[in-house]
Amino acid sequence: MTVRGSVPLTSAEANTPFAPADRSSRDTRVSVLVCEHSQVQLRILSEAVRAAGYEVHTATTAEDALGLLRLMPIDIFLTGIEVGETSGLEACWLLKSNPETETVYTIVVTASGQEKRLEESLDAGADDFIRKPVNMTELRARLRAATRLVRMQRQFRRMAETDALTGAANRRAFMQYLESQADMARRGSQPLSVIMVDLDHFKHINDTHGHGCGDRVLTGTVKAVQACLRERDMLGRLGGEEFAVVLPGAQGEAAIRAAERIRTAVSSQVFKDDRGEPIPVTASLGLAFADESNAMETAESLLQMADEALYEAKGAGRNRVMIAPPRGELVRIAAVG
User: Fold this and answer.
1) Nearest CA to 269 among 228, 211, 312, 317?
2) Does residue 179 surpass a pLDDT of 70?
3) What per-residue string of b and e applies to 286-308 under the rule 16 or more CB within 10 Å gives b?
4) Which of 15-19, 35-39, 261-265, 323-327 bottoms out in mean pLDDT, i.e. has the lowest?
5) CB 304 within 8 Å of CB 268
6) How many angstroms separate the CA atoms of 106 and 95, rounded?
7) Which end of the chain is more exposed for a tag (fewer CB within 10 A), N or C?
8) In this structure, are 297 and 189 located in the same domain?
């Protein structure tokens, strides 16, 4: 077993790749993907959408647009009909038939007098349409209406995917995200790391200080951990005082530093019970990697590896990070509090 001390962070490392994400505008920002074959029309539409306050992405073909939609979250898809071998109508149908993109709000731009195409657009799954030549006042109004629906969908989705007490992702949402990232790792797209986090002696906190204090510890811990994460990372509550973190694209030293950052953030919190007595809080962490050496690991097996490392951290004295080794090797300590 290899023992290592805490890994100090340089100022450069503190800001990359695990600088805390700026989530201040994450829930209010709305992104629009504009797809038009004509460069002139594309420029006119994208400039108008950007001037209305939206984050804008562009594509000249439906194929390129669908590729972008696989890579980044898009809220509104504004497309012409004749946009390459795949038409804008086909693109709408493909979006609506895919569970991962079915909530994207679609607006089709049609030529004046093409009533038949309007019917086809709605049958293909388009949520709205606008005629050419595009009236910019009408376009802004339709985008505002779309935005209201997008934000309502976000709220419903957040309620369905979020743990009610802590605000972390619930187990179902977390496992879905972990499975998608593990699939990408298996295809060789990127490495992946998973961290299991378990609060030490949490039952004692509940029994000694009451469940109200225990809830405050849980919610405070989630805020502390989330402040350590990038925007694409996910924290999930798996049950009780047990949490897990997905770190897409992270492995080796970067993932170890992220885990140690989380451990330190948890132990640095200051909690007091109803009588003003301090409540010391620490966490044990288990870290597992999916890289070229074990790229075929599934989401469940990665979580199990991290859980086994967590078990070793508990047995070794708690308040530490343990790394799950490649199959057949011993667990090693990454950091000790």
Assistant:
1) 228
2) yes
3) bbbbbbeebeebebeebbbbbbb
4) 15-19
5) no
6) 9
7) N
8) yes
The reported pLDDT for the residue numbered 234 is: 96
Structural domain tally of the chain? 2
Residue ranges making up the domain that contains 174: 163-336
- Rounded to whole angstroms, how far apart are CA atoms 48 and 61? 20
Alpha carbons 320 and 285: distance in angstroms, whole number: 6
Token duo for residue 182: 């593990």
Residues 143 and 176 in one domain: no
Query: What are 43-88's pLDDT values in tens digits?
Result: 999 999 999 999 999 999 999 999 998 888 899 999 998 888 888 8
For residue 194, what are its two tokens? 């998973």
Same domain, 79 and 171: no
pLDDT digits (tens, 9 = 90+) for 236-249: 999 999 999 999 99
CATH number of the domain at 306, please.
3.30.70.270
C-alpha dist (Å) from residue 307 to 45, 65, 120, 266, 285? 50, 39, 51, 18, 8
> Residue 271 — very low, low, confident or very high, per pLDDT cuts 50/70/90?
very high
pLDDT, position 71? 80
Q: Which of 33-37, 145-149, 230-234, 332-336 has the lowest mean pLDDT?
A: 332-336
The one catalytic residue in 36, 241, 260, 312 is: 241
Catalytic residue list contains 90:
no
**pTM for this prediction:** 0.67
